[in-house]
Amino acid sequence: MTDGHDHDGDPSDDRTPGVPRLGRDEQPAVYGPDYDDAAERPVDPVSRADCPTEAAGEPVADGGESAGGAPSGLQADGGTAATGGDDLDPANYDAVDVFDGGALDLRDGSDSCYKCTSCDTSCPVAEVDDSFPGPKFQGPEQWRLKRKEDHDIDASITDCSNCMRCDDACPSSVPLSQMHNEARGEFVAEQMAKLSTEYVRNRILSNYRFFAAIASKTPRLANFVTGLGVTKWVGEKLLGITSEREFPDFAQQTFREWWRDRGGARVENPDERVAYFHGCYSNYNTPEVGKAMVRVYESFGYEVMVPPQKCSGTPMFANGMLDDARRHAETNVESLVAAIGDGADIIASCTSCSLSLRQEYPELFDLHGIDDVAEHTFEALEYLRIHEDIDAALADADVDERAFAYHAPCHARNQGLARQAIEAFDAVEDVTVEDVGDSCSGISGTYGWKAEKYDYSMEIGAEMFEHMEAAEGEVGMTECPTCAMQMEHGTGYEVQHPLQLLEAALVD
Ligand code: SF4
Ligand code: SF4
User: Fold this and answer.
1) Which tens digit of pLDDT belongs to each residue from 209-240?
2) Are 441 and 467 contacting, i.e. CB atoms less than 8 angstroms apart?
3) Atom of ligand 1 nearest to the CA of 164
4) 294: which of 33, 309, 356, 466 is 20 to 30 A away, CA to CA?
5) Which residues contact 185 (CB under 8 A, 6 or more apart)?
6) Are 139 and 55 contained in the same domain?
């Protein structure tokens, strides 16, 4: 990987032992687009050059082993698909698209499933909602049904919160969340009534950025209106948005307005540049997180760029709004590819945004430069731990005594970042950051905002609330803005981002 910051080889080797080079325990299996014409398929000149099977014209899985007759274009990073018996032998079916008109063919992934049910036992929604059939059904079983005949997608796909915990749980690298996203996209496009309350509500929740941009023109008025009881009552009765939650306040000045008024970057350093993907929430609701990012990175000598950007697509994936997500992804990828061309790596302060750019974009869209964007994207603390000696910097920090109850978001776990905040602040005198366990917070972005899901959301979050209250600190900490909402909602605690503690410790 080229990152532009390898000062003397790989800094992760000598400065931060134990921190994965890419911050991931394991590269998730990514199944690429099914190219109709073999000539369209990009060929890696290094891995293919010496391959006798490829030279003979046979399709090869990326792990370097024969895919056993699988259609060309299927890729299985880092492993060979299990065949699961004769009836699941890829040689026994025709090479046609499973989802009519779909760009992806995930049959190879469904054949890797050997029904161990690890994914089902890891699913927080299945644990509390008896009507939800779980990830095994939503993923490999639906894909198998699609192969036999043109089955409709089961409506329960919309009950999946897209927490993506099942991806981590699967020992066979079945691309579960990719299957769910594809199936949900097809269900919403072809089976969901476009005039139904559910569709309208989900479209509104997915396009938070659109409404936040309008509300931020007059934030005081917007905060007043959204705080009214009648607004919440109407929201629940007409749209099915729960009235149990407080709408988040809009900041008086967005992050981008602050950045413009500040005059942009105060450090120029063409050799160490980062492009900040702030996402919607840091821009419209918590600009203090974005400001902390800029100040911390500038204190290490980085030049910060703030490229044009739209929503990462996270709430759109969760609601099957793939056309909306693709539109936003096109802008983001074009803009971020240009930043990479200027020598920058991409830094996100929200772990769902970084996961979206790293995993969901290349899994779901075929856009020019998308793999470069995925390869160059990092979460903010992760990147500093790879490239800087954070332990030494924090060892000299003078911070007032404080204690935090830390929750690792599910999407941070997917990137191998579950322990990063605990480890980073471990040696800081007078600071305690206590892990409140590995449960899901329950809100999963828009899931906990749906009236019919609110009780499930709180039931899933109960363990986290209990552990937060048992922890020493009465301030929460997490990298995900909607987990922060849920932590605050369930305990009444103020919640901060690790970047804010870094700013307090390292920036004068
Ligand atoms: S993404 Fe989360 S909610 Fe959806 S099936 Fe997987 S574990 Fe369950
Ligand atoms: S964890 Fe993986 S292999 Fe096991 S049932 Fe789920 S999808 Fe299949």
Assistant:
1) 999 999 999 999 999 999 999 999 999 999 99
2) no
3) 1
4) 356
5) 320, 321, 322, 364
6) yes
Nearest CA to ligand 1 atom 5: 135
Q: Are residues 171 and 296 in the same domain?
A: no
| Ligand 2 and 258: CB distance under 6 A | no
Ligand nearest to the Cα of 163, by number: 1
Sheet holding 431-435, edge to edge: 431-435, 402-406, 475-477, 494-496
Mean pLDDT of the chain: 83
**378 φ, ψ (degrees, to nearest 5):** -140, 155
* Count of other CB atoms within 10 angstroms of residue 485: 23
Place of tokens 């066979």: 172
Taking the model in full, what pTM does it have?
A: 0.80
Q: Are residues 181 and 127 in the same domain?
A: yes
Boundary of a domain, candidates 363, 387, 411? 387
341 within some domain: yes
Nearest CA to 436 among 401, 463, 410? 463
Q: What is the whole-number distance in angstroms between the Cα of residue 108 and the centre of ligand 2? A: 13
pLDDT tens-digit map of 441-486: 999 999 999 999 999 999 999 999 999 999 999 999 999 999 999 9
> How many Cβ atoms are within 10 Å of 96's Cβ, its own excluded?
11
CA distance 396 to 488: 31
The letter for the amino acid at 411 is H
Q: Measuring from each residue's beta carbon to the nearest atom of ligand 1, which residues come in under 6 Å?
A: 122-123, 125-126, 135, 138, 160-166, 176-177, 180
Q: How far is the CA of 166 from the centre of ligand 1 (A)?
A: 6
Q: Which ligand sits nearest to residue 173's alpha carbon?
A: 2
Q: What is the DSSP-derived secondary structure letter of residue 298?
A: H
Task: Judge contact between 254 and 279, C-beta under 8 A.
Answer: no
Which amino acid is it at 208? Y
